Protein backbone atom coordinates (compact mmCIF):
# COMPACT_ATOMS: atom_id res chain seq x y z
CA UNK A 1 0.00 0.00 0.00
CA UNK A 2 0.92 3.68 0.19
CA UNK A 3 2.72 2.99 3.41
CA UNK A 4 5.57 1.53 1.35
CA UNK A 5 6.45 5.04 0.12
CA UNK A 6 9.68 6.24 1.66
CA UNK A 7 10.85 9.76 2.41
CA UNK A 8 12.03 11.86 -0.56
CA UNK A 9 15.45 13.49 -0.21
CA UNK A 10 15.28 17.01 1.23
CA UNK A 11 15.68 19.94 -1.14
CA UNK A 12 19.18 21.31 -0.32
CA UNK A 13 18.17 25.01 -0.50
CA UNK A 14 15.47 24.48 2.11
CA UNK A 15 18.02 23.30 4.67
CA UNK A 16 20.06 26.47 4.12
CA UNK A 17 17.15 28.87 4.55
CA UNK A 18 15.89 27.01 7.62
CA UNK A 19 19.31 27.06 9.25
CA UNK A 20 19.66 30.75 8.38
CA UNK A 21 16.22 31.52 9.82
CA UNK A 22 17.09 29.77 13.09
CA UNK A 23 20.41 31.64 13.50
CA UNK A 24 19.98 34.52 15.97
CA UNK A 25 23.30 36.22 15.21
CA UNK A 26 22.68 39.70 13.81
CA UNK A 27 25.70 39.63 11.52
CA UNK A 28 24.39 36.59 9.64
CA UNK A 29 24.47 36.59 5.84
CA UNK A 30 22.22 34.52 3.56
CA UNK A 31 23.89 33.41 0.35
CA UNK A 32 21.46 30.57 -0.36
CA UNK A 33 18.80 32.80 -1.93
CA UNK A 34 17.09 32.17 -5.25
CA UNK A 35 15.69 35.68 -5.61
CA UNK A 36 16.64 39.34 -5.86
CA UNK A 37 16.91 41.45 -2.73
CA UNK A 38 17.14 45.24 -2.38
CA UNK A 39 20.09 46.97 -0.74
CA UNK A 40 18.08 46.57 2.52
CA UNK A 41 17.95 42.84 1.72
CA UNK A 42 14.18 42.89 1.23
CA UNK A 43 12.11 41.25 -1.56
CA UNK A 44 11.37 43.56 -4.48
CA UNK A 45 8.27 44.00 -6.66
CA UNK A 46 9.14 45.93 -9.83
CA UNK A 47 7.32 49.27 -10.24
CA UNK A 48 6.61 48.38 -13.82
CA UNK A 49 4.85 45.21 -12.67
CA UNK A 50 2.62 47.23 -10.34
CA UNK A 51 1.77 49.54 -13.25
CA UNK A 52 0.94 46.63 -15.53
CA UNK A 53 -1.29 45.10 -12.85
CA UNK A 54 -3.11 48.42 -12.39
CA UNK A 55 -3.81 48.49 -16.14
CA UNK A 56 -5.15 44.95 -15.93
CA UNK A 57 -7.53 45.84 -13.10
CA UNK A 58 -8.80 48.88 -14.99
CA UNK A 59 -9.52 46.76 -18.04
CA UNK A 60 -11.60 44.33 -16.01
CA UNK A 61 -10.37 41.29 -17.93
CA UNK A 62 -12.09 37.97 -17.26
CA UNK A 63 -10.58 34.75 -15.92
CA UNK A 64 -11.65 32.32 -18.64
CA UNK A 65 -9.28 29.57 -19.78
CA UNK A 66 -6.39 30.45 -22.03
CA UNK A 67 -5.84 28.28 -25.12
CA UNK A 68 -3.50 25.31 -24.55
CA UNK A 69 -0.57 27.22 -26.05
CA UNK A 70 -1.18 30.18 -23.71
CA UNK A 71 -1.88 33.84 -24.40
CA UNK A 72 -1.21 34.54 -28.10
CA UNK A 73 0.01 38.09 -27.49
CA UNK A 74 2.39 36.81 -24.80
CA UNK A 75 3.84 34.14 -27.08
CA UNK A 76 4.50 36.75 -29.76
CA UNK A 77 6.03 39.23 -27.31
CA UNK A 78 8.24 36.68 -25.57
CA UNK A 79 9.69 35.26 -28.81
CA UNK A 80 10.36 38.79 -30.09
CA UNK A 81 12.07 39.75 -26.85
CA UNK A 82 14.28 36.70 -27.11
CA UNK A 83 15.26 36.80 -30.78
CA UNK A 84 14.52 40.43 -31.71
CA UNK A 85 11.36 41.23 -33.72
CA UNK A 86 13.27 41.57 -36.99
CA UNK A 87 15.12 38.26 -36.61
CA UNK A 88 14.86 35.95 -39.64
CA UNK A 89 13.54 33.09 -37.49
CA UNK A 90 10.56 35.28 -36.50
CA UNK A 91 10.07 36.82 -39.95
CA UNK A 92 10.07 33.37 -41.55
CA UNK A 93 7.70 31.97 -38.89
CA UNK A 94 10.12 29.23 -37.94
CA UNK A 95 9.60 29.51 -34.17
CA UNK A 96 7.08 27.38 -32.29
CA UNK A 97 6.33 29.21 -29.03
CA UNK A 98 4.18 27.79 -26.24
CA UNK A 99 3.61 29.49 -22.89
CA UNK A 100 5.05 27.42 -20.04
CA UNK A 101 4.83 27.19 -16.26
CA UNK A 102 7.86 29.46 -15.84
CA UNK A 103 11.38 28.22 -16.64
CA UNK A 104 10.95 24.88 -14.91
CA UNK A 105 7.69 24.01 -16.68
CA UNK A 106 9.06 25.16 -20.04
CA UNK A 107 12.11 22.95 -19.60
CA UNK A 108 9.79 20.13 -18.60
CA UNK A 109 7.88 20.55 -21.87
CA UNK A 110 11.15 20.54 -23.80
CA UNK A 111 12.20 17.37 -22.00
CA UNK A 112 8.84 15.75 -22.75
CA UNK A 113 9.23 16.64 -26.44
CA UNK A 114 12.72 15.14 -26.51
CA UNK A 115 11.53 12.02 -24.72
CA UNK A 116 8.61 11.40 -27.05
CA UNK A 117 10.35 12.15 -30.35
CA UNK A 118 14.00 11.22 -29.66
CA UNK A 119 13.61 8.41 -27.11
CA UNK A 120 17.16 7.15 -27.59
CA UNK A 121 18.87 10.55 -27.57
CA UNK A 122 20.73 11.84 -24.59
CA UNK A 123 21.25 15.39 -23.42
CA UNK A 124 24.59 16.82 -22.33
CA UNK A 125 24.50 19.09 -19.28
CA UNK A 126 27.23 21.20 -17.70
CA UNK A 127 29.05 20.01 -14.60
CA UNK A 128 27.86 21.61 -12.43
CA UNK A 129 24.43 22.85 -13.41
CA UNK A 130 21.26 24.10 -11.72
CA UNK A 131 20.26 21.22 -9.43
CA UNK A 132 16.74 20.91 -10.79
CA UNK A 133 17.90 20.15 -14.36
CA UNK A 134 18.62 16.58 -13.34
CA UNK A 135 15.19 16.17 -11.66
CA UNK A 136 13.41 17.53 -14.72
CA UNK A 137 15.29 15.26 -17.12
CA UNK A 138 15.03 12.19 -14.90
CA UNK A 139 11.28 12.62 -14.42
CA UNK A 140 10.78 13.05 -18.18
CA UNK A 141 12.87 9.94 -18.85
CA UNK A 142 15.62 11.77 -20.77
CA UNK A 143 19.11 10.30 -20.32
CA UNK A 144 21.83 12.86 -19.55
CA UNK A 145 25.58 12.97 -19.22
CA UNK A 146 27.82 15.81 -18.12
CA UNK A 147 30.33 17.98 -19.94
CA UNK A 148 33.14 19.70 -18.06
CA UNK A 149 32.46 23.35 -17.33
CA UNK A 150 33.98 24.61 -14.09
CA UNK A 151 37.71 24.60 -13.41
CA UNK A 152 38.24 24.78 -9.62
CA UNK A 153 41.89 25.79 -10.00
CA UNK A 154 41.17 28.98 -11.93
CA UNK A 155 37.57 29.42 -10.64
CA UNK A 156 36.79 29.94 -14.35
CA UNK A 157 35.52 28.08 -17.42
CA UNK A 158 37.17 24.79 -18.38
CA UNK A 159 36.70 25.66 -22.03
CA UNK A 160 38.93 22.90 -23.45
CA UNK A 161 37.15 20.32 -21.28
CA UNK A 162 33.76 21.60 -22.38
CA UNK A 163 34.63 21.50 -26.08
CA UNK A 164 36.24 18.08 -25.99
CA UNK A 165 33.31 16.53 -24.06
CA UNK A 166 30.77 17.97 -26.51
CA UNK A 167 32.94 16.65 -29.37
CA UNK A 168 33.33 13.22 -27.81
CA UNK A 169 29.57 12.66 -27.41
CA UNK A 170 27.76 10.63 -30.11
CA UNK A 171 26.27 12.68 -32.97
CA UNK A 172 22.77 14.11 -32.56
CA UNK A 173 22.69 14.74 -28.82
CA UNK A 174 20.85 17.61 -27.20
CA UNK A 175 23.09 20.08 -25.36
CA UNK A 176 21.75 22.09 -22.44
CA UNK A 177 23.34 25.55 -22.33
CA UNK A 178 22.72 28.46 -19.97
CA UNK A 179 21.99 31.49 -22.18
CA UNK A 180 23.67 33.85 -19.71
CA UNK A 181 24.63 34.06 -16.03
CA UNK A 182 25.36 30.36 -15.53
CA UNK A 183 23.77 28.93 -12.40
CA UNK A 184 25.52 27.95 -10.09
CA UNK A 185 28.96 29.19 -11.16
CA UNK A 186 28.40 32.72 -12.52
CA UNK A 187 30.81 31.84 -15.34
CA UNK A 188 29.81 32.47 -18.97
CA UNK A 189 31.71 31.75 -22.19
CA UNK A 190 33.04 34.82 -24.04
CA UNK A 191 31.47 35.73 -27.42
CA UNK A 192 34.46 34.14 -29.18
CA UNK A 193 34.02 30.96 -27.13
CA UNK A 194 30.29 30.88 -27.97
CA UNK A 195 31.25 30.84 -31.67
CA UNK A 196 33.45 27.81 -31.11
CA UNK A 197 30.74 26.08 -29.03
CA UNK A 198 28.30 26.69 -31.92
CA UNK A 199 30.87 25.31 -34.41
CA UNK A 200 31.22 22.07 -32.48
CA UNK A 201 27.48 21.66 -31.92
CA UNK A 202 26.85 22.23 -35.63
CA UNK A 203 29.61 19.81 -36.67
CA UNK A 204 28.25 17.11 -34.40
CA UNK A 205 24.62 17.71 -35.48
CA UNK A 206 23.69 18.25 -31.85
CA UNK A 207 20.64 20.36 -30.98
CA UNK A 208 21.05 23.03 -28.30
CA UNK A 209 18.49 23.56 -25.54
CA UNK A 210 19.07 26.98 -24.03
CA UNK A 211 17.90 27.80 -20.54
CA UNK A 212 17.35 31.57 -20.44
CA UNK A 213 16.35 32.81 -16.99
CA UNK A 214 18.33 36.01 -16.69
CA UNK A 215 17.67 37.99 -19.89
CA UNK A 216 18.38 41.61 -18.96
CA UNK A 217 19.12 40.75 -15.35
CA UNK A 218 22.70 39.60 -15.98
CA UNK A 219 24.24 42.53 -17.85
CA UNK A 220 21.34 45.00 -17.57
CA UNK A 221 20.69 44.74 -21.34
CA UNK A 222 18.06 42.41 -22.80
CA UNK A 223 19.95 42.48 -26.12
CA UNK A 224 23.36 41.57 -24.72
CA UNK A 225 21.95 38.75 -22.58
CA UNK A 226 20.25 37.17 -25.60
CA UNK A 227 23.36 37.31 -27.78
CA UNK A 228 24.33 33.66 -27.24
CA UNK A 229 20.91 32.44 -28.41
CA UNK A 230 20.85 34.89 -31.33
CA UNK A 231 24.28 33.76 -32.46
CA UNK A 232 23.02 30.19 -32.80
CA UNK A 233 19.78 31.30 -34.47
CA UNK A 234 21.74 33.38 -37.01
CA UNK A 235 23.49 30.22 -38.19
CA UNK A 236 20.16 28.74 -39.26
CA UNK A 237 20.44 25.99 -36.66
CA UNK A 238 17.52 24.25 -35.01
CA UNK A 239 17.36 25.01 -31.31
CA UNK A 240 15.13 25.04 -28.25
CA UNK A 241 14.97 27.89 -25.76
CA UNK A 242 13.19 27.85 -22.40
CA UNK A 243 12.46 31.30 -20.94
CA UNK A 244 11.52 32.46 -17.47
CA UNK A 245 10.30 35.80 -16.10
CA UNK A 246 10.90 34.81 -12.48
CA UNK A 247 14.09 36.81 -12.08
CA UNK A 248 14.08 39.52 -14.73
CA UNK A 249 10.54 40.69 -13.83
CA UNK A 250 10.52 39.35 -10.29
CA UNK A 251 7.45 37.23 -11.16
CA UNK A 252 8.66 34.16 -9.23
CA UNK A 253 5.29 32.98 -7.96
CA UNK A 254 3.35 33.88 -11.13
CA UNK A 255 5.03 30.96 -12.96
CA UNK A 256 5.39 32.62 -16.34
CA UNK A 257 7.79 31.54 -19.08
CA UNK A 258 7.82 29.91 -22.51
CA UNK A 259 9.35 27.21 -24.64
CA UNK A 260 10.50 28.33 -28.09
CA UNK A 261 11.55 25.82 -30.72
CA UNK A 262 13.37 27.19 -33.76
CA UNK A 263 12.69 24.86 -36.70
CA UNK A 264 14.01 24.64 -40.24
CA UNK A 265 10.67 25.63 -41.86
CA UNK A 266 7.29 27.17 -40.90
CA UNK A 267 5.69 23.83 -41.59
CA UNK A 268 8.00 22.04 -39.17
CA UNK A 269 7.34 24.77 -36.57
CA UNK A 270 3.58 24.15 -36.83
CA UNK A 271 4.04 20.44 -36.34
CA UNK A 272 6.32 20.95 -33.34
CA UNK A 273 3.87 23.41 -31.83
CA UNK A 274 1.03 20.92 -32.19
CA UNK A 275 3.12 18.31 -30.33
CA UNK A 276 4.02 20.75 -27.55
CA UNK A 277 0.32 21.52 -27.12
CA UNK A 278 -0.48 17.83 -27.04
CA UNK A 279 2.06 17.36 -24.22
CA UNK A 280 0.87 20.44 -22.29
CA UNK A 281 -2.74 19.23 -22.51
CA UNK A 282 -1.95 16.03 -20.68
CA UNK A 283 0.18 17.70 -18.02
CA UNK A 284 -1.84 20.78 -17.00
CA UNK A 285 -4.40 21.52 -19.80
CA UNK A 286 -3.61 25.23 -20.13
CA UNK A 287 -1.37 27.76 -18.37
CA UNK A 288 -2.19 30.58 -15.91
CA UNK A 289 -3.07 34.01 -17.29
CA UNK A 290 -1.98 36.61 -14.75
CA UNK A 291 1.78 36.60 -15.38
CA UNK A 292 1.26 36.30 -19.13
CA UNK A 293 -0.77 39.53 -19.11
CA UNK A 294 1.81 41.32 -16.99
CA UNK A 295 4.67 40.39 -19.34
CA UNK A 296 2.63 41.23 -22.44
CA UNK A 297 1.71 44.65 -21.06
CA UNK A 298 5.34 45.46 -20.25
CA UNK A 299 7.07 44.05 -23.32
CA UNK A 300 4.35 45.26 -25.67
CA UNK A 301 4.20 48.87 -24.44
CA UNK A 302 7.15 51.12 -25.29
CA UNK A 303 6.84 53.30 -22.15
CA UNK A 304 6.60 50.37 -19.77
CA UNK A 305 9.33 48.57 -21.69
CA UNK A 306 11.81 51.43 -21.18
CA UNK A 307 10.88 51.59 -17.50
CA UNK A 308 11.50 47.86 -17.23
CA UNK A 309 14.92 48.29 -18.84
CA UNK A 310 15.71 50.93 -16.22
CA UNK A 311 14.75 48.61 -13.40
CA UNK A 312 16.79 45.82 -14.99
CA UNK A 313 19.82 48.12 -15.08
CA UNK A 314 19.17 48.98 -11.44
CA UNK A 315 18.96 45.33 -10.32
CA UNK A 316 21.94 44.18 -12.40
CA UNK A 317 23.84 47.29 -11.28
CA UNK A 318 23.28 46.56 -7.61
CA UNK A 319 24.67 43.06 -8.01
CA UNK A 320 27.67 44.38 -9.94
CA UNK A 321 28.38 47.04 -7.33
CA UNK A 322 28.26 44.46 -4.53
CA UNK A 323 30.68 42.27 -6.50
CA UNK A 324 33.02 45.25 -6.87
CA UNK A 325 32.85 46.28 -3.22
CA UNK A 326 33.39 42.72 -2.04
CA UNK A 327 36.39 42.35 -4.31
CA UNK A 328 37.85 45.66 -3.11
CA UNK A 329 37.44 44.66 0.54
CA UNK A 330 39.01 41.27 -0.11
CA UNK A 331 42.01 42.68 -1.97
CA UNK A 332 42.60 45.38 0.65
CA UNK A 333 42.38 42.97 3.58
CA UNK A 334 43.96 39.77 2.26
CA UNK A 335 47.75 40.07 2.51
CA UNK A 336 48.36 36.56 1.14
CA UNK A 337 48.22 37.64 -2.49
CA UNK A 338 45.27 35.38 -3.27
CA UNK A 339 43.43 36.50 -6.38
CA UNK A 340 39.77 37.21 -5.55
CA UNK A 341 39.05 38.88 -8.89
CA UNK A 342 36.71 36.07 -9.93
CA UNK A 343 34.04 37.92 -7.96
CA UNK A 344 34.08 40.72 -10.52
CA UNK A 345 34.63 38.42 -13.51
CA UNK A 346 31.57 36.30 -12.76
CA UNK A 347 28.17 37.53 -13.97
CA UNK A 348 24.63 37.37 -12.61
CA UNK A 349 23.44 36.71 -9.10
CA UNK A 350 25.54 33.61 -8.43
CA UNK A 351 29.21 32.86 -7.94
CA UNK A 352 31.19 29.81 -7.09
CA UNK A 353 33.94 30.88 -4.70
CA UNK A 354 35.82 27.61 -4.90
CA UNK A 355 35.55 26.91 -1.15
CA UNK A 356 35.89 23.35 0.10
CA UNK A 357 33.57 21.79 2.65
CA UNK A 358 35.69 22.66 5.70
CA UNK A 359 35.89 26.28 4.56
CA UNK A 360 32.14 26.43 4.05
CA UNK A 361 31.61 24.91 7.50
CA UNK A 362 33.80 27.60 9.03
CA UNK A 363 31.88 30.30 7.14
CA UNK A 364 28.68 28.96 8.65
CA UNK A 365 29.73 28.05 12.20
CA UNK A 366 32.13 30.88 12.96
CA UNK A 367 30.83 33.65 10.72
CA UNK A 368 27.11 32.85 10.31
CA UNK A 369 27.41 32.98 6.51
CA UNK A 370 25.10 30.49 4.80
CA UNK A 371 25.56 29.06 1.32
CA UNK A 372 24.38 25.90 -0.41
CA UNK A 373 26.41 22.69 -0.06
CA UNK A 374 27.75 22.92 -3.60
CA UNK A 375 29.43 26.24 -2.67
CA UNK A 376 27.06 28.45 -4.64
CA UNK A 377 26.66 31.97 -3.33
CA UNK A 378 23.78 34.30 -4.22
CA UNK A 379 25.14 37.84 -4.18
CA UNK A 380 21.60 39.19 -3.89
CA UNK A 381 21.92 38.38 -0.17
CA UNK A 382 24.78 40.88 0.16
CA UNK A 383 24.54 44.66 0.66
CA UNK A 384 27.35 47.25 0.54
CA UNK A 385 27.15 47.35 4.33
CA UNK A 386 27.85 43.60 4.62
CA UNK A 387 30.91 43.51 2.33
CA UNK A 388 33.57 44.26 4.97
CA UNK A 389 32.26 41.57 7.28
CA UNK A 390 31.86 39.08 4.45
CA UNK A 391 35.42 39.74 3.27
CA UNK A 392 36.73 39.03 6.80
CA UNK A 393 34.71 35.82 6.84
CA UNK A 394 36.11 34.71 3.48
CA UNK A 395 39.72 35.48 4.34
CA UNK A 396 39.54 33.77 7.73
CA UNK A 397 37.74 30.71 6.36
CA UNK A 398 39.88 30.42 3.25
CA UNK A 399 43.23 30.52 5.02
CA UNK A 400 42.38 28.36 8.06
N1 LIG B 1 16.99 27.44 -14.84
C1 LIG B 1 17.89 28.04 -14.08
C2 LIG B 1 19.32 27.98 -14.50
C3 LIG B 1 17.50 28.75 -12.95
O1 LIG B 1 18.42 29.37 -12.21
C4 LIG B 1 16.14 28.79 -12.60
C5 LIG B 1 15.68 29.52 -11.38
N2 LIG B 1 16.46 29.34 -10.27
C6 LIG B 1 15.23 28.14 -13.44
C7 LIG B 1 15.69 27.48 -14.55
C8 LIG B 1 13.75 28.08 -13.27
O2 LIG B 1 13.12 28.97 -12.49
P1 LIG B 1 11.55 29.22 -12.64
O3 LIG B 1 10.90 27.90 -12.77
O4 LIG B 1 11.18 29.95 -11.40
O5 LIG B 1 11.38 30.05 -13.85
UniProtKB/TrEMBL annotation:
<feature type="domain" description="Aminotransferase class I/classII large">
    <location>
        <begin position="28"/>
        <end position="394"/>
    </location>
</feature>
<comment type="subunit">
    <text>Homodimer.</text>
</comment>
<dbReference type="InterPro" id="IPR015424">
    <property type="entry name" value="PyrdxlP-dep_Trfase"/>
</dbReference>
<dbReference type="GO" id="GO:0006520">
    <property type="term" value="P:amino acid metabolic process"/>
</dbReference>
<dbReference type="InterPro" id="IPR004838">
    <property type="entry name" value="NHTrfase_class1_PyrdxlP-BS"/>
</dbReference>
<comment type="similarity">
    <text>Belongs to the class-I pyridoxal-phosphate-dependent aminotransferase family.</text>
</comment>
<dbReference type="GO" id="GO:0004069">
    <property type="term" value="F:L-aspartate:2-oxoglutarate aminotransferase activity"/>
</dbReference>
<dbReference type="InterPro" id="IPR000796">
    <property type="entry name" value="Asp_trans"/>
</dbReference>
<dbReference type="InterPro" id="IPR015421">
    <property type="entry name" value="PyrdxlP-dep_Trfase_major"/>
</dbReference>
<dbReference type="GO" id="GO:0030170">
    <property type="term" value="F:pyridoxal phosphate binding"/>
</dbReference>
<protein>
    <recommendedName>
        <fullName>Aspartate aminotransferase</fullName>
        <ecNumber>2.6.1.1</ecNumber>
    </recommendedName>
</protein>
<dbReference type="InterPro" id="IPR004839">
    <property type="entry name" value="Aminotransferase_I/II_large"/>
</dbReference>
<dbReference type="InterPro" id="IPR015422">
    <property type="entry name" value="PyrdxlP-dep_Trfase_small"/>
</dbReference>
<keyword id="KW-0808">Transferase</keyword>
<dbReference type="Pfam" id="PF00155">
    <property type="entry name" value="Aminotran_1_2"/>
</dbReference>
<keyword id="KW-0663">Pyridoxal phosphate</keyword>
<keyword id="KW-0032">Aminotransferase</keyword>
